[in-house]
Amino acid sequence: MGEQDMPTGPGNGPSNPGKRRLGVMGGTFDPIHHGHLVAASEVAAQFHLDEVMFVPTGQPWQKSHRHVSPAEDRYLMTVIATAENPQFSVSRIDIDRGGPTYTVDTLRDLRALNPDTDLFFITGADALGQILTWRDSVELFSLAHFVGVTRPGHDLTDAGLPEGGVSLVEVPALAISSTDCRARVAKGDPIWYLVPDGVVRYIDKRELYRGE
């Protein structure tokens, strides 16, 4: 695993000695899997984060083309998956807001709640390629430093991203995907060791993904 500097930014984000550094990992988490957890842990180590907050989306506007599991199920799976790591926390901020979830709203709310904290928004490198199409995209980079997690060898061009606003981190475990996990459950295939054990049991108990 290693960090890859983009032409657009430094390797470790803003340098403000003494300020708290909070990682924000937003996602549908449908379901959360080990790729998410390894990515969060790796970014926390490389960027010296004090905490990584997982923020399950309420109503993901990008996922309107498919069925998304209820927010409470996705929230509880995330709580189960992160419970053993004291550096991880889970926020209901997007779920409780209501309406479609937009990253800019998430970061505005977290900035208001954490005025003396540097925010690091952790997302997939593929999502970074679309970030300029997100709502109020220009404002996003004033609210947080963006960290794109990617598989080794993945190339991402500048794509008009602001200087100093983005860094890339390579995480081999990202070969796991929520889409594949859902498909395996639907076919009756096991997902042990792809997602945390407690999440496997939760999916089975709630009979999630069986009709997809």
UniProtKB/TrEMBL annotation:
- One Pfam family named in its UniProt record: CTP_transf_like
UniProt cross-references to SUPFAM superfamilies, sorted A to Z: Nucleotidylyl transferase
Q: Where is the Cytidyltransferase-like domain?
A: 24-184
Q: Which CDD domains match?
A: NMNAT
Q: Which Gene3D superfamilies match?
A: HUPs
Q: What are the GO MF terms of this UniProt record? A: ATP binding; nicotinate-nucleotide adenylyltransferase activity
Pathway given in the UniProt record: Cofactor biosynthesis; NAD(+) biosynthesis; deamido-NAD(+) from nicotinate D-ribonucleotide: step 1/1
- GO BP: any one term: NAD+ biosynthetic process
The reply to whether Nucleotide-binding figures as a keyword in the UniProt entry is yes
* Keyword annotations from UniProtKB, A to Z: ATP-binding, NAD, Nucleotide-binding, Nucleotidyltransferase, Pyridine nucleotide biosynthesis, Transferase
Annotated segments matching region Disordered: 1-23
**Record's PANTHER family?**
NICOTINATE-NUCLEOTIDE ADENYLYLTRANSFERASE-RELATED, PHOSPHOPANTETHEINE ADENYLYLTRANSFERASE
Q: What does the protein in this record do? A: Catalyzes the reversible adenylation of nicotinate mononucleotide (NaMN) to nicotinic acid adenine dinucleotide (NaAD).
The entry sums up its family as follows: Belongs to the NadD family.
This chain belongs to the protein called Probable nicotinate-nucleotide adenylyltransferase
In its UniProt entry, the species of origin is given as Streptomyces viridochromogenes
